[in-house]
Design brief:
about 425 residues; alpha/beta; Adenylosuccinate Synthetase, Chain A, domain 3; Adenylosuccinate Synthetase, subunit A, domain 2; 2 domains; ten-stranded mixed β-sheet; 12 helices; about 30% helix; binds inosinic acid
C-alpha cells in the first residue's frame, strides 16, 4: 500500500489542509512530522469551517488514527484547547490521537524568548508567529529541551526544568531585561497538562511502522512549506524545522524506503506571510484583489498575506528537493476573471540570468522576476470537478505548469469545500 507525503512547495498556506482531508478518506494513519501550532490548516466540511493547528487534518474523518510525531514541537496548553474545541463541535477524539513521547515541549519561556528575539532584531525581524517555535527547536538542538515523555515523570520534569531555567532566567534578566520564570509555577501548570494528555502519549514510531508493515495507508501531513524549511528555504526568513518531505522520515522515525509518493501542493499563485524576500510579490491593487478574493489572511495569526504571481524558479527547487511525484494545484478559482496571468520563469540580478533559486539571501533579495504572460479566463471555475469543463485558458495554465516543472498535476482544487475538486489521479490505489 502506498505511503504518501503531502508537502507545501511555496511559503506555506498552499491549502494542504483540504488536500490532506480529502486524501485521508483512504488513509489508515495521518501523521504530522514537524512544526507546531504556528501552522493553521483550514478545512471546510458542509459549510462548517475547521482550523487545525497541531492535530492532523485527518481527525475530521472518522476512524483514522492521527499522530503527532517526534519532529513536532508541542505547546501542551494549545493542544488541550484544540482537542477540547474539536470535541465540542462533535469530532470524536478517543483512541485515535497519539502524541510522540519524543516530541519536544514548548515552554512559556520559549514564547518570551521568541518575542524578545524579534524585538531585538528590529527592522530585520523574521515576522514569526510568536508561538515559541524557534526557541523550542533551539533547546532541542542544544540538548536542553524537555520532552513529552518527561511529563509522565514529575521529578525528572522538575529537575530538567529547574536546571534549564537557571540559564533561561540569566538571559531574560541580563540580555533581554525581561521578567524571570519560576520553576514551581511552570511545574504546577505542566502537571495539569500532563494529566490531561497522558491518554494520548505513545510510541508513535511503533504505531506508524506497524501500520506500514501491515500494508496500511499512511498519509504524512507537512506543515508550512519548502521555502520556510530551515535548510532549504529562504534562510533566515524560515521556520525552525524541516518542512520538506525528508522531514517526514526524521520527524516520525520512518525509513526513506517506506515512502512511495510525494504530493507537492502549489497554490495557483504565491503568498507569503512574515518578512523575507518574495520576488513575484504584487505591490499594486491586483495584489489586494488576490488577497481579498482568496481570503489571504493567516489562519493562525490573522495577518494579511503578501500575494504574488506563480514562481516557477522556487517551484523547480521545491520539486527537486522534495522528490515530488505529483502536484496538487489549489485555489485555481481565485484567478478567475483576470485578463492575463503572469508566470515567473527566471530571475535577473545585476545583469545575470538565474534559472535556479539562488541560495545567497542577498542575491535572492535583489532578484527581478522574468515573466511569461498567458491568457486569463473570464468564466467561473469554482466548484468544477471535471478538467474538460475548465475554460481552455485555465486548462492551458495547468498544462503549462506541468511542462515547466516536468511533473503531472494529480489534483486541482476549485473551492474550499471537499467536493470542489478535480481528481486526475488517485494517490492511494497504486494507480
Ligand atoms: P515561526 O515558525 O513562528 O518561527 O515563524 C517563522 C516564519 O515562518 C514566519 O515568517 C512565519 O510567518 C512563517 N510561518 C510559520 N508557520 C507558518 C504557516 O503555517 N504558514 C505560513 N507561514 C508560516
Amino acid at each position: 500500500m502506498p505511503n504518501v507525503i503531502v508537502v507545501g512547495l511555496q511559503w506555506g498556506d498552499e491549502g494542504k489542509g483540504k488536500i490532506v482531508d480529502v486524501l485521508s478518506e483512504k488513509a489508515d494513519v495521518v501523521a504530522r512530522f514537524q512544526g507546531g501550532h504556528n501552522a493553521g490548516h483550514t478545512v471546510v466540511i458542509n459549510n462548517e469551517k475547521f482550523i487545525l493547528h497541531l492535530i492532523p487534518s485527518g481527525i475530521l474523518n472518522p476512524n483514522k488514527v492521527c499522530l503527532i510525531g517526534n519532529g513536532v514541537v508541542v505547546d501542551p496548553g494549545a493542544l488541550i484547547q484544540e482537542i477540547k474545541g474539536l470535541k465540542e463541535r462533535g469530532v470524536a477524539i478517543k483512541n485515535n490521537l497519539f502524541l510522540s513521547k519524543n516530541a519536544h515541549l514548548i515552554m512559556p519561556y520559549h514564547v518570551a524568548v521568541d518575542r524578545e528575539n524579534e524585538r531585538l532584531r528590529g527592522v530585520k525581524n523574521i515576522g514569526t508567529t510568536g508561538r515559541g517555535i524557534g526557541p523550542a527547536y533551539c533547546d532541542k538542538a542544544g540538548r536542553s529541551g524537555i520532552r513529552v515523555a518527561d511529563l509522565l515523570y514529575p521529578e525528572i520534569f522538575r529537575e530538567k526544568l529547574d536546571a534549564h531555567l537557571f540559564h533561561v532566567n540569566f538571559l531574560l534578566e541580563h540580555l533581554y531585561k525581561a521578567p524571570r520564570f519560576h520553576t514551581e509555577e511552570i511545574y504546577r501548570e505542566y502537571m495539569v497538562y500532563a494529566e490531561a494528555l497522558a491518554e494520548y502519549i505513545a510510541d508513535t514510531d511503533i504505531i506508524v511502522n506497524s501500520t506500514i508493515a501491515a500494508h496500511g495507508n499512511v498519509l504524512f501531513e507537512g506543515a508550512q512549506g519548502t521555502l520556510l524549511d530551515i535548510d532549504h528555504g529562504t534562510y533566515p526568513y524560515v521556520t525552525s524545522s524541516n518542512a520538506i518531505a525528508g522531514g517526514a522520515c526524521t520527524g516520525l522515525g520512518v525509513g526513506p524506503t517506506k515512502i512511495s509518493k510525494v504530493l507537492g501542493v502549489v497554490k495557483a499563485y504565491t503568498t507569503r506571510v512574515g518578512s523575507g524576500p518574495f520576488p513575484t510579490e504584487i505591490h499594486d491593487s491586483l495584489g489586494e484583489h488576490l488577497r481579498e478574493r482568496g481570503g489571504e489572511y493567516g489562519a493562525t495569526t490573522g495577518r494579511a498575506r503578501r500575494c504574488g504571481w506563480l514562481d516557477i524558479v522556487v517551484l523547480r527547487h521545491s520539486v527537486r528537493i522534495n522528490g515530488v511525484t505529483g502536484l496538487a494545484i489549489t485555489k485555481l478559482d481565485i484567478l478567475d476573471g483576470l485578463d492575463s496571468i503572469k508566470i515567473c520563469s527566471s530571475y535577473t540580478h545585476k545583469g545575470s540570468l538565474y534559472n535556479e533559486f539562488p541560495k545567497e539571501t542577498q542575491i535572492f533579495e535583489g532578484c527581478e522576476p522574468v515573466y511569461e504572460e498567458v491568457e486569463g479566463w473570464k468564466a467561473d471555475t469554482s466548484g468544477i470537478r471535471d478538467f474538460k469543463k475548465l475554460p481552455e485558458a485555465a486548462q492551458s495554465y495547468i498544462k503549462k505548469i506541468e511542462t515547466m516543472l516536468g511533473v503531472d498535476v494529480h489534483l486541482i482544487s476549485t473551492g474550499q469545500r471537499r467536493d470542489e475538486l478535480i481528481l486526475l489521479k488517485e494517490q492511494f490505489n497504486g494507480s
